[in-house]
Amino acid sequence: MSAYQHAIDTASQLCNGQPTWQNINPEFVARMQTQNRFKTGLDIARYTASVMRRDMTEYDANPAAYTQSLGCWHGFVGQQKLLSIKKHHGTTNKRYLYLSGWMVAAMRSEFGPLPDQSMHEKTAVPALIEELYGFLKQADARELGHLFTQLDEAQGHGDQVAVQRLQNEIDSFETHVVPIIADIDAGFGNEEATYLLAKKMIEAGACCIQIENQVSDAKQCGHQDGKVTVPHEDFLAKINAVRYAFLELGVDDGVIVARTDSLGAGLTQKIPVAQQAGDLADQYNAFLETTPVASAEDVSDGDMVIKQNGELRKPVRLPNGLYKFKAGTGEDRVVLDCITSLQNGADLLWIETEKPHIGQIAGMVNRIRDVVPDAKLVYNNSPSFNWTLNFRQQVFDAWQQQGKDISQYQRPELMSEAYDGSELAQEADRWIQNFQKDAAEQAGIFHHLITLPTYHTAALSTDNLAKGYFGDEGMLAYVDKVQRQEIRQQLACVKHQDMAGSNLGDDHKEYFSGEQALKAGGANNTMNQFG
């Protein structure tokens, strides 16, 4: 018996036991249950956590099995992404969503557009998670609704082959609900604040929470200057807070991504107290830039003095009270951050870098794997990188080392359009095309994401439409560049009434009201013009 038929039989037994439910159709009940597989956000979090854990295990066995996501700032954008993935690739396997704190700040704050500095409302983060999953669940309901309509037609024609095929499609239907890697920034406060927000995110459906080691009230975008890190003990307390939130809510295999910004962070706000030589606080303090203290004359009022390797040293403090790390210690601090996080409850790492360079990433990951062999990364394929220039310069450098003639190229000018058709540019594009595959194999990257691609695609497509529509093209700009392309490329969204739930509503009206239902999808609905 098919799962769908089993659901009908179960609903029949239930309804038949209630004499006043004679107007309830058991098959309609089964359909609505099938269309609403996930009843709560916690159901989603538990399911997607199991998906992500399975994917992590498969990656450990085969680095070619890496995963990917795109950042989405609205539920509709996430929904369209998953519909497109299923249409073009047949499955959502190993495709996730990313929730970017940057985009929440820039596009979802009631304060208006904000920089990525944890100034937006913390409640906007779980609200967006809930919104994304609401749209993904609606995609399930819509697609299954179409299958039910086809099933009714096949049954009406007595086409048992089609009936069996459609029942199989319904039983094997792959949900659009996929894992979301959700950005909690630096936790929006102390460890209790982190725990409370993590709970809301998990209750909304998050199976994976990414947290960074910056000071919460001094948080900066990972690709901006002025970043300030916290001591390891402070960061580990927040990792513990997130784990407790997962366990309290019964998401036992929830995933924590520990992000380190130490590569680009040269400052700390706090000097931790070492209890013994070589402990985490002592290791953190060893990276501080200090000056020797020979006598009281070397110390000003309010200065701090610490003892390092038997000597008194004065940490260099800026006018704003922050302390400096030694220049050139970034990679060493990253490695220590990552090892410490993995040894204390984190599942995945995020190393924020200043450029997409596989050799640089692999150099750090290999050092981490010397201590934690299965260490793996979530990596930000950031739009903040100038990918074209970076990779053209990487190819330039590689060719120079190989002794290849590069006299026709000027390294600082490689972004110029004049080089677009050159051999070097074509080779750089091949490197970009293969970056994710190569980095997954060589640098331990389990998950590749782009933080804010849909921010840029929205801007680009709007610019192109506005240019033509308000210019000489007029309405043709929309028809040619948008609607005609939707039709030619078979975008489901061309039937926007259906996408917004019109047909779902008609189905429900028929369930509830029978022949009296006033439905929107009749012959006069202009959506029928699209076939």
Throw out a few tags for this protein.
3 domains; 531 residues; alpha/beta; 48% helix; eight-stranded parallel beta sheet; globular; TIM Barrel; three-stranded mixed beta sheet
| Strand residues, percent | 5-15%
* The CATH class of the largest domain: Alpha Beta
Across the major sheet, the strand order is 12-6-4-3-2-1-14-13
Number of strands: 14
Radius of gyration: 28 Å
Summed up, the domain count is 3
Terminal Cα span? 34 Å
Low-confidence stretches are 221-225
Short overview:
This is Isocitrate lyase. The protein has 531 residues and is α/β, with parallel strands linked by helices. 48% of the residues lie in helices and 11% in strands.
Could you explain how this protein is built, in words?
The chain contains 18 helices and 14 strands. It is α/β, with parallel strands linked by helices and 531 residues long. The chain folds into three domains: 1-36; 43-273 and 327-451, TIM Barrel, CATH 3.20.20; 495-529, no CATH class. α4 crosses α6 (124-156) and α13 (387-402) packs across α14 (423-442). The longest helix is centred in the N-terminal third of the chain and has 33 residues, at 124-156. It is globular. It starts with a helix and ends in an 18-residue tail after the last helix. The active site is at 221 (proton acceptor). One of its GO terms (molecular function) is isocitrate lyase activity. Mg(2+) binds at residue 183.
What's the arrangement of secondary structure elements?
Elements: H1 3-16, H2 26-35, H3 41-61, E1 67-71, H4 75-89, E2 95-99, H5 101-107, H6 124-156, H7 160-171, E3 180-183, H8 191-204, E4 208-212, E5 228-229, H9 232-248, E6 255-260, E7 267-268, H10 280-285, E8 290-292, E9 306-308, E10 311-315, E11 323-324, H11 330-342, E12 348-351, H12 358-369, E13 377-380, H13 387-402, H14 423-442, E14 445-450, H15 453-469, H16 475-488, H17 496-499, H18 502-513
Parallel strand pairs: 1-2, 1-14, 2-3, 3-4, 4-6, 5-7, 6-12, 13-14
Antiparallel strand pairs: 7-11, 8-10, 9-10
